[in-house]
Write a structure and sequence with these properties.
By secondary structure, the protein is mainly beta. The protein has helices at about 1-25, 180-185, 225-230, 255-265, and strands spanning about 30-40, 45-50, 55-60, 65, 70-75, 80-90, 90-100, 110-115, 120-125, 130-135, 140, 150, 155-165, 170-180, 195-200, 205-210, 215-220, 240, 245-250, 290-295, 300, 310-315, 320-325, 340-345, 350-355, 370-380. About 25% of the residues are buried.
Length: about 375
């Protein structure tokens, strides 16, 4: 009996000691987490400083996540994002949350323009840009980064370009100057729908040259000579060139100038509308066209000296092209070739070499023997 009692007491003592030992063990600590980060543009490096954690779950506030302890993340755009890191350990789960702000990356734009006649090559250099919007200053636009644009009229145009990203943009502008071509100086270009009208300049001399290759000067007639000879209306003749290649002119005094020059070349005593000049043949203007090639040289068969039985093909170079009027029309003086050597042309002055003939007989009758240097100016606005 005593022996059984002792066994029961021993077992109770052992159980009590077991409970005591168990109650003295340390509890498992809960994990802790702290978030730090470094922002570089749209890139962010995250660091989780933890204790007693073995797994990590990040959410970056833009729908993306990571299970790394110290992840790097790239945001797609600017904004404020709520970032959460949840850690788990034997002692449980803990979370930390921070709000981070991603500023918009700036767009820096530089534009350049290279002009070649009416064609301009534009270049846009832009860091971070995704799209481009050009305004060429003539109501035309482009969305290309480096467009080539052709202007149709001379002038100075203010060109602007806006380069944009998802979050930012930059706009720059520059002035582009288009110089008028010889053809535009002649016609006024598309901006002058009714064309550009020229008249002979009464303040300029008329030069008379031989048709040899060197264009030897014979003489200069004084300024206003046609008016002095009684036909001032000749200076009011209007010669109109249009951008579309059509031509017209308004004759004021039945081409008296052609008869005047003819009489002078042949030593005739000129009297306005008199019998000593060649018989007047009133000219009726017709609808006509013209061509103008600023690069073309003039080549004609001419009588270069006083020997009216000899002719030679001559080419004149180094001028400003050849103007030809078709359909029987003429400019300035009724001549035989309807081709004019362009000595000079600008927006406010044109000097033409007009080929006329003083050959009145023989096999070379009517062949060019002289060149008239006549100056034209734009008709004054009324």
């Amino acid at each position: 009996m005593k022996k059984a009692f002792f066994s029961i007491m021993s077992m109770a003592l052992i159980a009590t000691l077991g409970l005591f030992v168990t109650s003295c063990e340390d509890p498992v600590p809960a994990p802790t987490v702290d978030i730090s980060y470094i922002v570089d543009g749209y890139d962010v490096d995250f660091t989780a400083t933890v204790t007693d954690a073995s797994t990590f779950a990040w959410t970056f506030g833009d729908g993306l996540a990571s299970t790394e302890q110290n992840p790097s993340h790239t945001y797609a755009g600017a904004g404020t994002y709520t970032v959460t890191c949840t850690v788990t350990g034997e002692g449980g789960t803990e979370s930390a949350t921070v709000d981070i702000t991603i500023d918009a990356a700036p767009v820096t734009l530089v534009i350049e323009a290279s002009v070649d006649g009416y064609d301009v090559t534009f270049t846009a250099t832009a860091e971070g840009a995704e799209s481009f919007a050009w305004d060429f200053g003539d109501s035309e636009t482009s969305s290309e980064q480096n467009p080539v644009h052709t202007y149709v009229q001379s002038g100075t145009y203010t060109v602007s370009c806006t380069a944009s990203s998802a979050d930012a943009s930059d706009t720059q502008s520059t002035d582009v100057t288009i110089e008028p071509s010889p053809s535009e100086m002649l016609t006024g270009g598309p901006a002058m729908a009714d064309g550009k009208t020229w008249v002979m300049d009464p303040l300029s001399q008329i030069g008379i040259f031989h048709t040899d290759e060197d264009m030897t000067l014979q003489e200069y007639l004084p300024a206003g000579i046609i008016g002095l000879l009684g036909a001032p209306e000749e200076y009011e003749d209007e010669f109109t060139f249009k951008h579309d290649g059509t031509y017209s002119h308004d004759v004021k005094n039945d081409s008296v100038i052609a008869n005047t020059i003819f009489a002078m070349l042949n030593g005739l005593e000129f009297k306005a509308l008199g019998d000593d000049a060649v018989v007047l043949a009133p000219f009726t203007p017709v609808a006509a066209t013209f061509t103008f090639d600023p690069e073309l040289d003039m080549t004609l068969e001419v009588v270069p000296d006083e020997d009216v039985e000899e002719s030679v093909e001559t080419t004149w170079t180094g001028h400003n092209g050849v103007l030809e009027i078709l359909d029987g029309e003429f400019a300035g003086v009724l001549d035989g070739t309807r081709k004019y050597l362009v000595y000079e042309i600008s927006a406010d002055k044109m000097v033409l070499g007009i080929f006329i003939s003083a050959v009145t007989e023989g096999s070379k009758l009517g062949m060019p023997s002289h060149i008239l240097e006549i100056t034209f100016v734009p008709k004054a606005s009324e």
